[in-house]
Amino acid sequence: MRIKRSLLLAVIFGIALVFSGVRPQTQAQQSPDYQAIADRFFVLLEQNKSDEAIDYMFNTNVALKNMPGKSETLKAQIADLERQLGSYHSHTKLAESKVAGVFVYQHYFVAYEIQPISLRLKFYKPRDTWRVFGVQFDPDLPELIQKETDQNLDRQFK
Fold first, then answer.
1. What is each CA distance from 40 to 34, 47, 54, 59, 104, in whole angstroms?
2. How far is 53 from 74, CA to CA, in rounded Å?
3. 30 falls in which pLDDT band (50, 70, 90)?
4. pTM
5. How far is CA 18 from CA 7, 23, 46, 72, 104, in A?
6. Contact residues for 1 (Cβ-Cβ < 8 A; gap 6+)
7. Residues 107-157: pLDDT tens digits?
8. 114-126: pLDDT as tens digits
9. Cβ of 145: how many Cβ atoms within 10 Å?
10. pLDDT of residue 122
């Protein structure tokens, strides 16, 4: 009896939505939030699809997409990094800053076979849709960590 009642309520709710003109949004209709974009980017990296990962990021922002040679340059740089550093293993978010609900900066520690890199993602939402504002990576992460650690040690003994 409970199942019939629940089913009846679901049907009534569905009919009410149809007559009210409100349609529940499917995933395809919704604009992904910035974290969903970042997550998809890392899934593609994990699948050894770095070119697709860059295309995906650039496709979220028409201005980036239309910059001549920008995505190709980034693809070549990442491919070169992958040749030098080996395969992607994992990522960890080190920091995230949000400004006014429309701008997000994320800094990731990305582990490759030979060494980690630093990856920074910037997202911007001028109206209703999040878009990638920038992608930046730095292979000198181990040196940056060493420098910061040494500076902290020096401060402790002063």
1. 10, 11, 11, 13, 16
2. 11
3. low
4. 0.75
5. 17, 7, 41, 46, 36
6. none
7. 999 999 999 999 999 999 999 999 999 999 998 888 988 999 999 998 888
8. 999 999 999 999 9
9. 13
10. 97
Pair of tokens at residue 122: 């910037």
Given this model, what pLDDT does residue 31 score? Answer: 58
Contact 110, 91 (CB under 8 A): yes
Domains and their CATH numbers in the chain: 31-156 (3.10.450.630)
Of 79, 91, 75, 73, residue with least CA distance to 141: 91
